[in-house]
Amino acid sequence: MPDKRQRGNDKGNKILPNGPDQSWRWIVLVLVTLLAAAFVYASVFTPQTTKQLGYDTFLHDAQAKQVVSAQIDNNNGKITGKLSDGTSYTVNGPLPFITTDITQLRQEGVNTSFYTPNSNFLSQILYYLIPFLLLIGFFAYMNRRAQGQMSGIMSIGKSKPKVYSTERPRTTFDDVAGYSGVKLEISEVVDFLKNAQRFKEIGARVPKGILLVGPPGTGKTLLARAVAGEAGVPFLSVTGSDFMEMFVGVGASRVRDLFQTARKQAPAIIFVDEIDSIGRKRGAGLGGGHDEREQTLNQMLSEMDGFDTTEGVVIMAATNRPDILDPALLRPGRFDRQIVVPLPDLEERLPILKVHCKGKKIASDVDLSVVARGTPGMSGADLANLVNEAALYAVRRSSPEIHMEDFEEARDRVLMGQRRDSLVLSDEEKERVAYHEGGHAVLAYVLPNADPVHKVSILPTGLALGVTQQLPLEERHIYPKEYIDDSLVVRMGGRVAEMLIFGDLSTGANNDLVGNTEMARKMVREWGMSDRIGPRAWGSQGMVFLGEDLMHSRDYSEDTSKIIDEEIDRILREQEQRATELLKIHQKGLELVANALLEKETIDGSEVAALIDEGYGAPVYGPNAKKAHILKLSSDGHDNDLGEDITSNEALDNNSDNV
Fold first, then answer.
1. Most buried residue among 140, 476, 531, 567 by CB atoms closer than 10 A?
2. What is the CA radius of gyration of the chain?
3. pLDDT at 565
4. How far from chain centre, in Å, is Cα 469?
């Protein structure tokens, strides 16, 4: 899978519908307004730099010979002039002016004159025009906003796909690590879009729709984009949620607009991500159907029937829930082909890790092939997260390079959570955890079909107080009954060890018992591994929200139900008895492993093997036995209680349903 750097390049393919920049118009308007306001202010308003006098005070000062000159404005009666001390003054005089006062001023020796000021035509125009301009501008702004809102309402039914053009850097199959089989199967679409004439001449019809099915994080969206990049055609990408609105009919309108846009740009690819959000089974679940979703689905079904592959439009979709899709969507003529994008296997994880390690400083002691072998069940997104966590650990250690120990820490962090250094166990609790984990480790080593031990720790990590990690020697796709039986015994090890050493039980085995009970139930009800039940199977319960389990009735009798319960109980008790017998034989080894854990807190698989052999008095396995092969990384698993038995049982749960 490509790393984030490559995904960033893919984002560069996006064509944004940006128009010309209109911000300069607002800047010019603001500048003109400021200049006009400054001009009017300078023309109309005079700064207060003169002395303001009252009219009576002015006459009194004139009688006291303190006024030198007086200029009287004929328009408003305003009097200005100078006092005997050189100070300018201004007086708001009466209008019309009193004749006797004029005579008195002249008798007192005041140089009196009258004048009529010339009016500034531009300032008068602006003085009255600016308010009107501001009012008109306000109404124009409000009208523009109203038009924008109306256009938004009118365009609510238009599809808004992300369009990736061929003129920009594009994603190709070279950017998708691994998945050679998927690439080969999907390459027919590329050939059709490139050379459609070849298919027309022979009368072949390329599938109208291709559905990519797989777990989250496997790169379904990236594969679809790589098809468009290889074919060199426009790529219209939408998600299922883009069609959903509060108004019924909007989604259907957007579907119509999307297909019209694709026809205009044909040949082109329409990609609908998370199609299960609109393609869910119609009229199912509690409360009936959903009008908007069903109308959108009906329109998509109609559009897929309405266009011909000769138009050069191919629709692709991705989902991780194909079981909830409407059957009409999956029939031939719509989504003709389903391509499974599974979790990467060992050969595919290595190139994916190499892609994600590009641009990072990897130390020479890092063996990516070992990292790939120790990460079964991880998707491309999980591997990207693993590499990033390793880089973060290297930064915390102030290391200039990423070392193998960083990958170890990162893997523990991804699988089990952050180590809880603040959690302090008492001596009694630590001893119980040590024997609990020792029981898992001893049984994982001595049982011939169990996965080898990689590491055992009693350091609190995530929600667990202790961890036992196992690593499968090879990729498994079919799990024999012997392997499942030994896995059940290993999970019983913690509980049995506590019984042997302390004579009582604790809550630490809760998750072990839950996992074993579920495994035994599948052995009886689904895998036909019970002699009393025989070759019969009852699958898991249906989903209520799809209406599959709303009126579900059990398809077996009460007597059969009782037999199922008895068989589950028998399987669990038999494996518990096996665990007890084996731990009694290797009790000395159990004590040595527990003491080593109390002393060192963490020991690896080779040390566990040496301690068990020492307690047994002889090597449990010969030099060429498979148990002697100890790898450097562990597998995955779950537990949230006292101890954690990390095995490949989760992968067993995920894969065995398809065997």
1. 567
2. 42
3. 92
4. 29
Tell me the CA distances in angstroms from 583 to 148, 469, 496, 591, one per residue in order.
77, 19, 8, 10
Task: Please tell me the distance from the alpha carbon of residue 464 to that of residue 141, in angstroms, as a whole number.
Answer: 62
d(CA 581, CA 560): 31
pTM (global) more than 0.70: no
pLDDT tens for 186-218 read: 877 777 777 777 777 777 777 778 888 888 888
pLDDT tens, 282-298?
Answer: 765 544 455 667 777 77
Every domain of the chain with CATH number 1.10.8.60 lies at: 346-416
CATH 1.20.58.760 in the chain is located at 427-658
Question: What is the model's pLDDT at position 234?
Answer: 79
Distance CA 177, CA 67 (A): 99
Q: Enter the tokens of residue 546.
A: 């799809």
For the chain, what's the residue count? 659
Residue with tokens 């296997």: 345
Looking only at the bridges linking them, the beta strands covering 313-319 and 453-457 are unpaired
Retrieve residue 294's tokens.
């069903």
Q: Which residue shows structure tokens 């200029």?
A: 71
Give pLDDT tens digits for 81-93.
888 777 888 888 7
Q: Which residues are catalytic?
A: 437
Looking at domain 46-118, which CATH architecture does it have?
Answer: 2-Layer Sandwich (3.30)
If residue 513 lies in a helix (H) or strand (E), which one and from where to where? Answer: helix 510-525
Distance CA 216, CA 379 (A): 8
Q: What is the pLDDT of residue 629?
A: 39
Q: DSSP E strands: which ranges in 436-483?
A: 453-457, 467-470
- How far is C-alpha 91 from the geometric centre of its chain's CA atoms? 76
The CATH number given to 427-658 is 1.20.58.760
CB 184 within 8 A of CB 290: no
Q: SS3 for 402? A: strand
pLDDT above 90 covers what percent of the chain? Answer: 13
What lies within 8 Å, CB to CB, of 36 at 6+ separation is: 126, 130
Helix (H) or strand (E) holding 327: helix 327-330
Q: Are 243 and 287 in contact (CB under 8 A)?
A: no
What are the φ/ψ torsions at residue 449 (nearest 5 degrees)?
A: -100, 0
The Cα–Cα gap between 458 and 311 comes to 64
Within 13 Å of residue 536, how many CA atoms lie on the same side as its CB? 11
- Are the CB atoms for 511 and 639 separated by under 8 Å? yes
Mean pLDDT, residues 73-98 taken together: 80
DSSP 628: G
Beta-carbon contacts of residue 383 (< 8 Å; ≥ 6 apart): 1, 344, 349, 352, 353, 356, 375
- C-alpha 434/C-alpha 594 separation (Å) is 5
Close Cβ partners of 423 (under 8 Å, ≥ 6 residues apart): 460, 465
Say how far apart CA 360 and CA 478 lie, in whole Å: 37
d(CA 19, CA 21): 6
What's the CATH code, domain 162-340?
Answer: 3.40.50.300
pLDDT in tens, 512-529: 899 999 999 999 998 989
Please report, for residues 308, 374, 399, the alpha-carbon distance to residue 343 in angstroms, rounded to integers and kept in the order given: 34, 14, 32
Q: Per the structure block, which two tokens stand in for 225?
A: 């984009």
